[in-house]
What does this fold into?
Amino acid sequence: MKTRSQTAPKPLKTVALAPRPSSSKGGSKPAGKGDPLAPKKPPTAFFFYMEDFRKTYKQENPSVKSMQEVGKACGEKWNKMAFEEKVKYYDIATQKRAEFDKAMIEYKKKKESIEMSEESDYD
DNA sequence: ACAGTGATTGTTTAA
DNA sequence: TTAAACAATCACTGT
It folds into this structure.
């Protein structure tokens, strides 16, 4: 009924379209243009599960050093996890998103304000 | 010594 | 609607 954030599995993905040079390496950019005060994305349900999974994994696999293996193992199990189990983590992520959502609204308002000012203010 | 890389999936945002 | 980018973790590696 509702198409709200429907992360529908669409294997149809083209390539590269909007590369956003946020700030990976190089950096010198006049502050105020990018999103220096933009609320960062909260960890997703997958990450919450990983926190728990990570500990368990290390206990059973103290030999594993890199996080890469844990990530794979976590992802693989995540796909096998029952929805009921996942819902538990989704619930947490949902709450975080709620807070993030509010922060984003205010950020947007402020951002618009900044853009407006910038438009006619240069020195 | 510092900072980036590596993999995982989910959520985000801009046009 | 689409798709690219980024969110955390943590040992290792390059300069």
